[in-house]
Task: structure prediction
Amino acid sequence: MQTLQRPHRPTGAFIGASWAALFVGAIAFLVGLWNAQMQLNEKGYYFAVLMYGLFAAVSLQKSVRDRLEGIQVTGIYYGLCWLSLLIAVLLLCVGLWNATLASSEKGFYAMAFLLSLFAAVAVQKNVRDVALLKPAATDAQDDDA
Result:
């Protein structure tokens, strides 16, 4: 088992950029769906794929981080996290491949989706790093008293 150093607090700029990227990617994707000339069931499909992808990305990031920190994660859950992320990306690719959208629209949805997934991982990392540092800050204040 590997011992890891306590993480450094992410900078405010990185935290803000991560949240901004998540909101920009997800909101752009959702506004694109809202304005799209497609049936409601198609819009629901793309919305579900976005939500599934975001959950899968965050779950995978947490599983990878848990393993690095020596927190037990079962192999089946770890494998399911990877499989879920791959399925979400595959579902988006298949949906866009078969969609009657312009190539520019397909690229827009793909890029907004990938930006959202990446940003969700960064936000999860920041939330976890800040949460891990809070007890240390509280302990240090108690030591000073």
